[in-house]
Amino acid sequence: MNQALICPRFEKAMSLMSQRWTGLVIYQLLTGPKRFCTLESSIGISGRVLSERLKDLEHQGIVKRAVYPETPVRIEYSLTEKGEALEPVMREIEKWSQTWLPNEMK
Amino acid sequence: MNQALICPRFEKAMSLMSQRWTGLVIYQLLTGPKRFCTLESSIGISGRVLSERLKDLEHQGIVKRAVYPETPVRIEYSLTEKGEALEPVMREIEKWSQTWLPNEMK
DNA sequence: TATAATTACTTACATAAAGTAACTAAGTGA
DNA sequence: TCACTTAGTTACTTTATGTAAGTAATTATA
């Protein structure tokens, strides 16, 4: 009795976005390429999970990894076209949060 | 060294949306009020977690619960105005998924 | 020359979140 | 009285995430 079955593509997108931290990682990358340690400290995610998420996002073609053999080595993560295409989603979440969530009080 | 700190309201919205199942529950409620068992079977969520999520969403003013003392009792969950306001977010996720995710093959 | 520093991770272990399946309560109906 | 239905809850298991220490490569410092 599966009355209203959900589009599998939507379901997949949602399961992606509903992984803890994934949204914030993408959001941070919307402002340009970022290094591992920068993402780690700005988001407050643990290195263990960040590493896992970045690998996953890379496999899904949402994030790309670039190695610059400087000293010390610099590795930058950025969004692919597929990743950049998530910007409207982020903008709508931003709009909603500004309309419906209270401003933090001091 | 917190270089690019994220807006706390956005962060809160994102932590909401990135809870497992929450997005799908809201998505299902966009098409009208639903009962517990309907959500349970259409989403594939366990009763234990669905109960938890609905309580949480109710506390946040996103979902409302209505009791109809029929036989057997009917309880319907629906979106508040705040919940309905998440529709554009869902539409953008839907659009993205249709553009960027492959159609399931048989 | 040995020690320390930096970045980008990985590993082992602890805690929190989610899944599973059985159970409860209230109200019929057979 | 026993069974059926809905809307949960409870106890227990599995999975996901957090924490903190460790690794490898390269250079800087004492």
Automatic annotation (TrEMBL), chains A, B:
Sequence ranges assigned to domain HTH hxlR-type in this UniProt record: 7-105
Source organism (scientific name): Cytobacillus horneckiae
Protein name per Swiss-Prot or TrEMBL: Transcriptional regulator
PANTHER family on file: TRANSCRIPTIONAL REGULATOR, MARR FAMILY (PTHR33204)
Keyword Transcription regulation listed: yes
Single GO term (MF): DNA binding
Taxonomy of the source species: Bacteria, Bacillati, Bacillota, Bacilli, Bacillales
rRNA processing keyword on record: no
Keywords: DNA-binding, Transcription, Transcription regulation
